[in-house]
Amino acid sequence: MLETRVLAVLDRLLTKTRFAQFPVLPSYWLSASVLNWAEGAISASFFFAMILLSHVLFFGYLATTQMGGLFFDAASRVQSRASVFGGWGWFKALQERRQDFAYNKGLVEILFSLVRTMETTCTMRSSSSAWRMNLYSQRGSPSISA
């Protein structure tokens, strides 16, 4: 008897959620993909996953190409504002402490700076030798003529 009352209450609670089983909604595609995969119907699972992926890519493309200007304007306005914490003493002290933070370079940073220095030196040597070769080719090879 208890089971029938619980089922009736659950049925009344879930009547408003029947729209979630509508096959045009992304939640249906995701749940159908997972359920079909669990049952072993890989092709049906792949089909629903690809429908979901195609919609994600399409609306992601629209959002980045068409709505990017709106996002940039909003982000620019937000980032150009002064900080809310700007008037608070503890926040100002924290910002000053972060700016004054100095540390010694570690081993990895030293190695990367050496590699970068060697790369720029090699690049400068190769570009200067290429410049010299170009200069000689424009003048012609030096010849001894009387």
Could you characterize the architecture of this molecule?
With 146 residues, the chain is mainly α. Among the domains are: 1-62, no CATH class; 101-140. Helix content is 74%, strand content 0%. Helix 2 packs antiparallel against helix 3 (42-65). The mean pLDDT is 77.
Q: What can be said about this structure in brief?
A:
By secondary structure, the protein is an all-alpha fold. 74% of the residues lie in helices and 0% in strands. It has 6 helices and no strands.
Please specify the SSE layout and strand pairing.
Blueprint: H1 2-14, H2 26-39, H3 42-65, H4 68-80, H5 89-99, H6 107-139
Helix pairs in contact: 2-3
Order of SSEs, N→C? HHHHHH
Number of helices, where a helix is a run of at least 4 consecutive DSSP H or I residues: 6
Q: How much of the polypeptide forms β-strand, as a percent range? A: under 5%
Ends distance:
122 Å
> In terms of structural class, how would the helical and strand content be classed?
mainly alpha
Oligomer: single chain
> Count of DSSP E strands?
0
Shape: extended
Largest sheet, in brief, is: none
Average pLDDT figure: 77
Flag low-confidence runs.
Answer: none
What's the Cα radius of gyration? 33 Å
Helix content class? over 70%
Kindly list the characteristics that best describe this protein.
mainly alpha; 0% strand; extended; 6 helices; 146 residues
